[in-house]
Predict the structure of Crp/Fnr family transcriptional regulator.
Amino acid sequence: MREILFKYLAKFTTLSAEEQKAIVDEIVVREYPRRTVLLRQGDVPDKCYFVLKGCVRQYSVDEDGRETTSNFYTEEQAVTVFNRHRRDLASEFSFECLEDSVLVVGDLVVEKDMYVKHAQLESMTRRMIEEMFGRMQDDFAAFVSSTPEERFKALLRNRPGLIERVPQHQLASCLGMTPESLSRIKKRVRRGPDEADLTPS
């Protein structure tokens, strides 16, 4: 799985093979069993993660106890909380492993030391974050302007395997609909437009 790390080092840096190996050898990779909570809502994060294998859910619970899933992170996606611009550094989200997962673990306390030691590592991290933010902006804009069915179809196009990997009530929450609505949309999409037109209203 460390081949994934070499891929990103080759993509975003001009480091030699020896330098890349030195960085990868220092990177911490850990296995987490399903249902492990990586960060609880209200705690101050001191780590960030990169998914090599598995699935991590991001969710929050409001004052009335209602739970909302806001994202799922799978292979080759970063799991982090961007709140350093705020005075209150407590996380607004919890992060939980939905599957047995293998994650790169970054310690935010020693992050600067790593950047000093490996200067191009900071540039690589910045470029990866820029890419991630760009996708997040595009996804949010599409989410706001689309119907529930359009959101589901977009998920099928962009992340087709996710549907079978996560509980349906969590997927429905992430798509901004009820589980019942998701079930109806799934049936309608799978029937196709021709069959849907023949179904009595």
